Amino acid sequence: MLSEEKCFEMIREVRWDDGVRCPWCESIEVKRNGHVSSHIFCQKYKCKACGKYFDDLTSTVLSDSNLPTKTWVLCLYLMGLNQSNSQIASELGLRRTTAQEMTSLLREEIQRKSPEPVLSGAVEMDEVYIVSGHKGRPDIVRRKMRLGRRNRLRGARGRGTLLTEKPPIFGLLQRDGSLLMRMLPNVRRTSIDPIIRQFVEIGTTVYTDEYDIYSHLPSLGYRHLTVCHGRREYARDADGDGIREVHVNSIEGVWSLLRSWLRPHRGISQEKLPCYLAFFQFVHNARVRGKSLLLPLMKLLLT
Questions:
Q1: Which of 12, 32, 220, 232 has the fewest CB atoms nearer than 10 Å to its CB?
Q2: Which residues in the chain belong to E strands, given as ranges?
Q3: Assigned domain for 243 exists
Q4: Which of 12, 44, 59 marks a domain boundary?
């Protein structure tokens, strides 16, 4: 059973892995100064350089909470197992609204602090469309002149946009490397070009399908190879070495994983969807699952 004392031992091991450092001036000249009254296992410190006080949770998302720290750690652990808010509330004995506030806060912090990868070598690009409306925002629903949902929101067939409540998710995957995802208002060159220029190195070989929004990639400085799904072409050998390296099967596999990941979280709103995408992106790039995911998540949130 995870105890409050064990949680703070884990927090100190993750946050101060190279020694206690003042969060205000980065000095290592600190001394212990008792414990926090509301968290008896939370160590307090005083910085000898700037004279300020801090503790194990100062300047982290876990500070200033009335809930036990072990509740936050267990919530993060269950999020790593892809539990829904209702399941987390049931497991931790919380109200559903409390669990929802906790998971929203943690996802937003993960989105804010996750490192942005720079992709190179061989990169696959593709887009997928996720049905997502404005759950919990009756003001927006009224402006759209439609009734509130009683059943699952159904998107129109074909390519969607943010306005049609079927926002496109643009994905870039470096083979044997990192994943980057962004929710876009639409799939146009003006939407994807800034992302490609920022996160993909010039000279990278880019693999896509034959959607015409990618046809200008050579003019941006990228080597561009395509497969035509309309002709039932899913992998092609471009250089005659017997290896069919031209494909987008890897990123399409990511879309299958993403849909499975989002399935337990029914009715994600457009306002919250980017946080779920950022969490999925971090989990994919961490290359660990289950219990092993807790430490990378804590390291991201605490350092």
A1: 232
A2: 30-35, 43-47, 53-55, 122-129, 168-174, 179-183, 205-209, 223-227
A3: yes
A4: 59
User: If phi over 0 gives left and psi between -120 and 50 gives alpha, with beta otherwise, what is residue 221?
Assistant: left
Residue 174's DSSP bridge partners are 123
Cα(232)–Cα(17) distance, integer angstroms: 52
Instruction: Flag whether 261 is in a domain.
Output: yes
CATH at 261: 3.30.420.10
- What is the amino acid identity at position 132? S
C-alpha dihedral, 57 to 59 to 65 to 70, nearest 10°:
-30
Q: Which two tokens stand for residue 89?
A: 């509330």
What are the pLDDT digits (tens) for 172-200? 999 999 999 999 999 999 999 999 999 99
Asked if 29 contacts 4 with a C-beta cutoff of 8 angstroms, the reply is no
151 in a structural domain: yes
Q: What is the DSSP string of 226-294?
A: EE-GGGT---B-SSSSS---B--HHHHHHHHHHHHHHTTSTT--TTTHHHHHHHHHHHHHHT--GGGGH
Taking residues 38-57, report their average pLDDT: 94
- Rounded-to-integer distance, Cα 79 and Cα 184, Å: 25
